[in-house]
Amino acid sequence: MEHTHDHHHHDHEHRDDHGHDDRMEWAKALVLIGLSAYFIFNLISGNVTNYINARFIWLSYLAGGLFLLYGGYMLYTLIQARRGNPIEHEHDHDHDHEHATWGILAIVAFPIAIGFFSTSTPLGADAVNGGVSLNAVGGENGMTISSDDPMKWHVLDWLRAFGQSEDITEFEGQEASFIGFIYREPDYGTNTVMVTRFTVNCCVADASAIGLPVRGEMVADVEQGLWVRVTGAYEISNFRGENTPVLVPQQVELIEMPDPPYIYP
Amino acid sequence: MNMHLEKESQQELQRMVSWIIMFVAVLVAVLLLSETGQGFSAQFAVFRTRFLGIFIEAVPFLLLGAAVSGLIGAFVTADSLAAYLPRNRYMATTTGAMLGFVFPVCECGVVPVARRLINKGMPPSMAISFLLAAPFMNPVVFAATYTAFGFGQVFFLRFIVTLIVAVTVGLLFAAFGRTEKIVLPQHLAAIRGASVDVDHVHVDTSHIELKNTATIISKLQNALHSAIEDFFDMARYLIIGCILAALMQTVIPQGALQSLGSGNISSVLTLQATAFILSVCSTVDSFLALAFVGTFSTGSIVAFLTFGPMVDIKSTMMFLGVFPRRVVAILIALPFAMTFMAGVLINLFLV
Fold it and tell me: Are B57 and A51 within 8 A, CB to CB?
């Protein structure tokens, strides 16, 4: 702490309270290291795919690295200063930074608190806001369907196929097998659920819920939000006032949540 | 000096109070969430996931923006920048709008860079053109828009509307705004240089001596140091913005928005509101816009792709760190009105 007296030309108003300033600098360094640790933790645990599209994972490596660099550099300068050979920074007099307060530090530490100290959960049935859509969404590859084999199609592939079809009745009797979580609303009708997925283009900010209607006693009692694989055949029938392919399941199997939980369109 | 300090602590107090009010508002909103039927813990988990998603996606760009700003601070001198600045205000604002090709930053990173350029003596009007245009006018976002839409109507309309809005707003500030009124006083040191007090002159001399002897290593250390300061200056605005965006997404029913998609006017307003609330990074908003093709009018998609990168919840929060509230209001209102008009005109006459 004594070092600050060594060069008076660096003294300005907000350096008056040296002890306070010093504690604040250490706290800032720790917040940066904490944020770095959170990004690294997310990458190691695989939780990162609960939040963003896998093709942007490199951004998290970048953030983890830069936070480590920033925090590590701050620690280095603080330790050097404590040892009596402070690193001189050209003080930017044409650029007065507002000095940090504990309140500001608390806000910047908020993501660490909320990130580390509660379990990471992907968006599920509770996050469906404004209903599940039957419309296919576009993405990086336009409206391409992922496979030639319809038995491998996921919810989005089916919706794209329905959207591209001239005559929806061609899907009558078509067999299908796909996964999703159970979602139901009162007006779906008896024994009817939507087997739902979230699509994520970039991060969960743009998540949208899409689903396929499934009707049968086999799904009637499955709890909202549970992940299932449904296998069966479509029949064209009325769902919320429209004629659309509705899957009649021959088999419903409870499954683990897939990893990643989202479809990347 | 004492008057100056007193004024500063008063501002500090005001700022504290507004933060506290904001936090109380957030708390009330969180409590309201618990009333929506699904139970507080379920809704809180959804909010948490949305918040961390936006934060994890956005913060790398803020870190990069801070790094770019730090490097400019260490390696670009005010004199060398001044040599490149066009004298003519039309040239200046147009150049400002194109500067994203030199400093490729999205809307999370553009604010610290723009602030730094103002500090180095760039006229605020030019920096504002840069601020509004750069999140689209850069190679990364060009590539993303091309991937999503090809070199079609949407790409060219996005380019033209962004350019017109950014240049016009910049010119309006150049014509009617006085520099001291556009930027918060603490960022104006370079411009008020003539009137610095004796203390500062003394420091500035030592400054020059330092500069002459500065090695690459010490310049990089300076860059790192000011990148860290920039990060702490801006991160709180980003984080509060992420909190608000995540809350809005969790509280406002999206179905209510989507039923407005086909009207020539309602569709434009709807997607502008969506862009503002979602606060999605400009590097990926094209892919998000793809989801609206078909249900929403072309004009509204162009409005989404032009208004969103200029203004959204998180960038508004970051603007507040650089500009007075009055200017922030103008920076929201003008791009809003202009992209709205562009969207409606496209719907009526082009499509």
Answer: yes
| Portion of chain B with pLDDT greater than 70, in percent | 78
Tell me which residues of chain A, numbers 67 to 126, contact chain B at a CB-CB cutoff of 8 Å. 67, 69-70, 73-74, 77, 87-98, 100-101, 103-105, 107-108, 110-111, 114-115, 118, 120-123, 126
Higher pLDDT, B36 or A111: A111
A32·B233 Cβ contact <8 A = no
Q: What is the DSSP string of chain A?
A: -GGGGT-GGG--GGGS-HHHHHHHHHHHHHHHHHHHHHHHHHHHHSGGGGTB-GGGHHHHHHHHHHHHHHHHHHHHHHHHHHTT-PPP----TTSPPPPP-HHHHHHHHHHHHHHHSS------GGG--S--B-SPPPBTTBT--S-S-GGG--HHHHHHHHHH-S-GGGGTT-EEEEEEEEE--GGG-TTEEEEEEEE-SSBGGG-EEEEEEEESHHHHTSPTT-EEEEEEEEEEEEETTEEEEEEEEEEEEE-PPPSS-SB--
Give the chain B residue whose CA is nearest to the CA of A43.
B56
| pLDDT of res. B164 | 96
Binned at pLDDT 50, 70 and 90, residue B251 comes out as confident
The verdict on whether omega for the bond into residue B139 sits within 30 degrees of 0, i.e. cis, is: no
Please name the residues in contact with A31: beta carbons below 8 A apart, sequence gap of 6 or more. A71, A105, A108, A109, A112
Tell which phi-psi region holds residue B294, choosing left (phi > 0), alpha (psi between -120 and 50) or beta.
left
Beta A227-239 vs A208-215: how paired, if at all?
unpaired
Phi, psi (deg, nearest 5) at residue B120: -85, 5
Assess whether pLDDT exceeds 80 at residue B37: no
Identity of the residue in A56, A108, A114 whose CB atom sits nearest the CB atom of B52:
A114
- Which helix (H) or strand (E) is B206 found in, with range? helix B198-213
Tell me the CA distances in angstroms from A31 to A18, A25, A26, A175, B235, one per residue in order: 20, 10, 9, 54, 12
Does the distance separating the beta carbons of A135 and B236 come in below 8 Å?
no
Does A201 contact chain B (CB < 8 Å)?
yes
Q: Which residues of B touch A203 (CB under 8 A)?
A: 53-54, 56-57, 280
Measured between beta carbons, the chain B residues lying within 8 angstroms of A135 are: 294-295
pLDDT in tens, A213-263: 999 999 999 999 999 999 999 999 999 888 999 999 999 999 999 999 999
Instruction: Give the separation between CA A11 and CA A4, rounded to whole angstroms.
Output: 8
> Which residue type, as a one-letter code, is found at position A183?
Y
Which of the residue ranges A123-132, B160-169, B281-290 has the most confident prediction, judged by mean pLDDT?
B160-169
Residue B343 neighbours by CB under 8 Å, 6+ apart? B267, B268, B271, B272, B297, B299, B300, B302, B303
**CB of A192 less than 8 A from some CB of B:** no
- The encoded tokens of residue B119 equal 């500090």
What token pair was written down for A208? 């949208």
